[in-house]
Amino acid sequence: MDRMKVVILCGGKGTRSYPFTEYLPKVMMPINGTPIIVHLMRIYASQGFTDFVLAAGHHQEMLRDYFEGRFTEWNITIVDTGEASDTGERIRRCAPHVGETFFATYGDGLGDVDLHRLLNFHRNSGGIATLTTVPLRSQYGSVHFGEDGRVDRFQEKPIIRDYWINAGYFVFERQAFDHWKGQNLETDVLPRIARTGGLFSYVHDGFWKSMDTSKDQQELEAIYRAGNAPWVFKPTQSITKTATAGVA
Question: Which of the residues in the chain have pLDDT under 50?
C-alpha cells in the first residue's frame, strides 16, 4: 500500500459560509453531526491512505482540539500555514511534510473518486501534477420548450457536460515545487505548471459536490440521511476498483 501524504486545505476563512465560519473553520461544518473534513478523510482512509497533513490557518485551534486523541488509526499532522495565506501558499508550506508524490485537496468537496485509478493515471501521464475535473452542474434549473414556445419539461440543476471544472483531488510530484510561484493555487500555481506541459486532468464522471454555503450543507445532509451517500466508499468497492485500475 502506498504511504502517501494527503494534504487538505482547511485554513481559509470561508466567507460564503458566514456566520458559521466566524467561530469555527469551514471544514468543521457538519453533515449529520460529523465535520465535513472527517467525511473527506474517510474517503481517503477507506482506500488505504491514512497519512494526513492539515493545512490549517483560520481558527486552527479548533482543529487541534477536535483531532487531539481522535482517529488514532490515522496519522494526522496539523501545520500552521498562516492566517491569511492563499491556497497555493498553504500547500507550499506543507512541503516539508510530504514525500516525492502526494495527494492534495480542498477541505469542502466530497466525491466518490477512485483514488487508486487517479494515482495510476497520474503516474502513467508522466506529469508533475494532476487535477480531478468534473462536469459543471448548473446552479439553476433549466426550462425546455419547443419552437412554438410550449414548455415541455423542467430540469433541476442539469449537468453541463461541455464544461469541466476543477474539483480538487490533486496528485503532485515534489518536482512541482520547482515551478511553485504565486500565492493562489488556481490562478498562479496551476497555470504556471500547465505552461510547462506538466499538468494533466483526470476526468471523474461520478458524484462530486462542494459545501460552499449553508444551502449546500443542507443538500449534503439530505443526501446522507437518505441512506446512500455516494462519497462513502465501501472497502469491497475500493478493492474491486483497485484491481481493475490499470484497465482503462
Answer: 1, 236-248
